[in-house]
């Protein structure tokens, strides 16, 4: 069936139309109703019709209007001429790229070009679906992303245990009566690796049912305030707490995997590996009394329907992968994995590799297929650690990185070692950015290709239905017509891929796309590929075509006509507010893609990490460490230029416990110098007994005072860059993830 874009206008009066749009600003993926009059956005509210988010919206959702209208948002390509970024036509920009990139590849090889991709790409289907094409066309090993500042440890541990990088279990909150949250603040972040719009409302409902929420965090966060209990934990010590909880399950005979027993491999190895981690041994390291650790283990074991959920606080540390793993070990040993109300796996309608191929068995995952040239860090999920990007640019020799294509990322602010990276970017022969601002990173580019406003793009979440607390399929078409002269991001990436593969700057991206899509169709439709492609291409092009192919061949799909009641994009798009596919269902053993067809509870690399942790049990605890913080009105480094979010009190402040403020002699509001392993910044202090003593908290993504950026509003209150302090040499060795938490600092009152 053909889809009529007018169907998306869900309300209209004489002068106004209302359009459904899935919010691209965070993982909650709320449906919004956007009112438009005369081509201008006049109102945004949560879409009550949305089957998944049910009308929820946070303050950031309104900011889509500001983003669309931001005068600093780029609408035209920029090319550097005589040292200055000036406006250019698309043809000029692509010609410049061809002129400068190809000789570089010719002379120095494909690894001389690095690619980096950032967070907003996860929220734009054109970027997410076409970046792999660019990566393939460039053919470089030097691929970096925000994943190694974030969730790579969890992806790795899930991959090792369950056989796929995106088979990450998450809380079935609507059916739970217990939730233990470690290192996550969904009240501010709106959830991560857990698409859960309106966490607040769902948590409230859980407690109203008589359920209980326990939060473990170095700060008594907004999430902790809305919970039943909160415990401080020393930053970076989660592995010790978790191993001691597993130890308690064994020593108190609380291991009850129930029906999971049939698929568990390695329980005895886990028992042996956690033996050194008695609650008494772990307590001084994590700052939680031994009896409390035992109580936490007992409480999890006793829960009827519940689980332990851990997020970025548990990933961005030296034992990130081990901590991520132990969370799922605890859920498995207590029978809460794959249990209604426990930690469950979604079954996504499209793009989920864990619904493809033979159910219950697979090739598992591999890492280390290559290594970074300078430090020898292993490849993980096709990437190298982003904190190593600078040294790959700085260090001469065969394979040195001489060019960068950055896509929707701002590592100069978002990654430790940012100042060093900025210098390295200046030393490159050539840099291209696909971005919407001239910011701290893209100011170094020679060519900037502007992405479109989200309101000018259709949208379906590629990744997040694989991480959602309920199954659903939702599509939102463009709200506004594409601005004159704008190019869809998928076409930008396809053009770049065409240039890299020698097809020339003039090549038609639609034709290049037609050529490339046949491989996908072959995989999804087999013998019927040709007929299927012809049919799908009659209605859709670009990312929408890939989406229709994936939906139709997916677990709820119409099988290209063999299951007429099944889904296709036409049906999904005709239902503004989306199609509900029901609550999460148990997926074992069908979900598994490990070579053994079992849950690998004790992968060798993780046992080795526990042995490393055991050696650190008695290590001294630093006097003062720093952690990060997220605030409702911010989004990493790039939304500080939007008036609705930028107004109000100063948000880049250092939170400090009263005892720490007193011993450093600082008063509320006073400016303080924070010195870390690689630098110092100054920020105003807010004294707050919600902080654990010995821990200071500074949000990340600030520091908009660098020359050459064009973020006029953000520059008025630039804030201090947390990442300047941190140590770009500290990583989780297995995943390559940066250590962003628990880094020692010293404090002194600023002049
Ligand atoms: N210390 C510390 N550092 C952290 C974190 C932390 O907790 N503590 N968190 C880390 C995490 S979890 C993440 S995900 C990273 C994020 O770090 P990055 O992935 O670098 O993302 P942002 O800082 O949000 O920068 C987003 C970039 O995308 C551009 N952009 C925005 N929208 C679009 C669009 O529609 N199209 C295109 N083409 N570009 C767009 C913006 O202009 C900006 O350049 O930061 C990490 N850094
Ligand atoms: N408003 C807002 N929302 C966002 C973002 C944003 O910048 N602003 N960013 C988005 C992104 S990219 C992501 S990845 C998600 C992240 O989503 P969350 O994981 O919920 O992120 P945070 O809110 O930073 O919560 C992390 C918590 O870990 C705690 N913590 C720090 N160190 C440790 C530690 O060593 N151990 C333990 N146990 N806890 C620790 C911190 O105090 C904090 O409360 O948020 C997303 N949503
Ligand atoms: S919670 Fe996230 S998805 Fe929902 S409106 Fe806010 S920013 Fe958008
Ligand atoms: Mo993130």
Within the CATH hierarchy, at the fold level, what is the topology of the domain at 152-358 and 590-615?
Dimethylsulfoxide Reductase, domain 2
| Helix content class | 25-40%
Present as ligands are: ligand MGD, iron/sulfur cluster, molybdenum atom
CATH H-level superfamily of the domain at 152-358 and 590-615 = Dimethylsulfoxide Reductase, domain 2
Main sheet: strands, sense, barrel: 7 strands, mixed
Indicate the radius of gyration in whole angstroms.
Answer: 25 Å
Per-chain topology:
Layout: E1 9-12, E2 16-22, E3 31-37, E4 40-46, H1 59-69, E5 78-81, E6 84-87, H2 90-108, E7 113-117, H3 125-138, E8 143-145, H4 152-162, E9 170-171, E10 178-182, H5 186-189, H6 199-208, E11 212-216, H7 222-225, E12 229-231, H8 238-251, E13 264-265, H9 267-273, H10 279-286, H11 290-302, E14 306-310, H12 312-315, H13 320-333, E15 343-344, H14 389-394, E16 403-407, H15 411-414, H16 418-426, E17 430-435, E18 447-450, E19 470-473, H17 489-500, H18 509-525, H19 529-539, H20 542-553, H21 569-573, E20 579-583, E21 599-600, H22 604-615, E22 625-627, H23 643-646, E23 654-656, H24 658-664, E24 671-676, E25 679-687, E26 695-697, H25 712-716, E27 743-744, E28 746-749
Parallel strand pairs: 7-8, 7-16, 10-11, 10-14, 11-12, 13-21, 16-17, 17-18, 22-26, 23-25
Antiparallel strand pairs: 1-2, 2-3, 3-4, 5-6, 5-18, 9-15, 19-20, 22-27, 24-25, 24-28
This protein binds ligand MGD (2 copies), iron/sulfur cluster and molybdenum atom.
One ligand MGD binds near residues 150, 182, 183, 313 and 314.
